[in-house]
Specification:
Elements: H1 15-27, H2 37-49, E1 53-57, H3 60-71, E2 78-81, H4 91-95, E3 99-102, H5 114-120, E4 125-131, H6 140-150, E5 153-157, E6 178-182, E7 195-199, H7 202-211, H8 235-265, E8 285-289, H9 295-304, E9 309-311, H10 322-325, H11 354-363, E10 364-368, H12 375-389
Parallel strand pairs: 2-3, 2-4, 4-5, 5-6
Antiparallel strand pairs: 1-7, 6-7, 8-10, 9-10
Helix pairs in contact: 1-8, 2-8, 3-7, 8-12
């Protein structure tokens, strides 16, 4: 049996988290508006990333919504993002009445292709939302340069990328205007559900904090200065997240150690595992790319051997999701989705992102990864992969 993030064997939850929850319950204060745990978590996460501000939210999707709201798109403005991600990357764009525009990806990392992003920029583009897929660093330095050149915000979705290292030595989430983290059950550390945003911009931080608390600055009486929702993290979640945060370096060290062991075992096989630098990757999942295709068949053989592997990661790219291709968005309306001009590439559906489609259909296998894998677990995965390619 392989440890899974769905059960205790695959998590690092223990006495520290129990003590944290007990501390909050005994205090009698479970709301972060008047409590201390969430504010402490924000400070600790900001310090870890070397940024001025962190703003907590009730989920990773909520954190992304704070970032998109802070970008302040007008209805119908466009935000460019990746077709290979969780729908939580796209939902906040729609929630702000903006239009998701998908740029294609690098065929080996699955991260945004900078040239494809450049081609997708139009007169209504407001921001670029890059995803560090599976924990591999996206090309955010190049995307930041592109964003700056066009006067756009760059938002980083780091839900799968805790402690992912960028080429300049900094952490994912610090290259863009805003970085977004997740504390959901399946992430490196968890409080069940929770999220945080990162920024060095005081104005963006204020906008996000207001949006997370119904536009209520709290220091001027019951006075709502802007539109916002209730995305507050609870003190219970904040306390558990703080206990988990202390364990994060070891979680990443363990995942990287076992990933290196598997990489060494696969060096002579016809598969690619990006990137080459093991210690820059957060190894949320262990991706394998088969350049010549055959991923569904290979994944089925791995599953038959008891390996927690699957082909494609998604059933379809986000650009092909029925929620975007055919379903109404608000009531019976498809607003804010509109057709692109005749001289632009199709926005949604098959053919819009052919590289991403080939990855999902033919070349990508993902293997569940976990900090509690032993060498025996890794060797079993390696033996099964070698068996498939013998």
């Amino acid at each position: 049996m392989f440890p899974s993030m769905a059960d205790a064997a695959g998590r690092t939850l223990g006495d520290e988290e129990i003590a944290a929850v007990t501390r909050v319950l005994r205090s009698g204060m479970l709301s972060s508006v008047w409590g201390t745990e969430v504010r402490a978590l924000e400070r600790e996460v900001a310090d870890l990333h070397g940024v001025a501000y962190a703003v907590a939210a009730s989920s990773g999707t909520a954190a992304l919504h704070l970032a998109v709201a802070a970008a302040a798109p007008d209805p119908g403005d466009e935000i460019i993002t990746s077709p290979i991600s969780d729908f939580g990357t796209v939902a906040p764009i729609l929630a702000q009445n903006a239009v998701p525009v998908f740029a294609d990806v690098d065929p080996f990392t699955g991260n945004l292709d900078v040239d494809a992003v450049a081609r997708a920029i139009g007169p209504r583009t407001r921001a670029i939302l890059a995803v560090h897929l599976f924990g591999a660093p996206a090309p955010v330095a190049e995307l930041r340069e592109l964003a700056d050149r066009h006067g756009l915000l760059l938002i980083e979705d780091c839900a799968q990328a805790w402690l992912t290292k960028l080429p300049n030595g900094r952490l994912a989430g610090t290259a863009g205007s805003i970085g977004c983290l997740s504390l959901q059950q399946w992430k490196h550390i968890t409080c069940g559900d929770g999220g945080l945003t990162l920024t060095d911009d005081a104005d963006l931080a204020r906008r996000m904090r207001l949006f997370a608390d119904k536009g209520w600055p709290r220091d001027v009486g019951r006075h709502h200065v802007s539109f916002g929702l209730n995305y507050r993290m609870t003190e219970l979640a904040g306390a558990v997240a703080r206990a988990q945060l202390a364990k994060l370096p070891k979680v990443l060290a363990d995942r990287r150690r076992t990933a290196r062991r598997l990489l060494d075992a696969l060096r002579d096989l016809p598969v690619r595992v990006p990137p080459a630098d093991v210690d820059s990757h957060a190894w949320w999942l262990f991706p394998l790319v088969l350049p010549d295709g055959g991923a569904p068949e290979a994944a089925a053989k791995l599953q038959a051997a008891g390996i927690p592997a699957r082909a494609g990661y998604l059933q379809e790219g986000l650009h092909c999701a029925p929620a975007l291709t055919e379903a109404p968005i608000y009531g019976g309306s498809r607003f804010p989705l509109t057709s692109p001009p005749a001289d632009r590439e199709p926005r949604y559906g098959r053919g819009a992102c052919p590289v991403a489609e080939r990855m999902i259909d033919e070349t990508l296998i993902v293997i569940d990864w976990n900090e509690n894998y032993t060498d025996d677990h890794v060797d079993a995965i390696a033996d099964a992969i070698r068996g498939v390619f013998r």
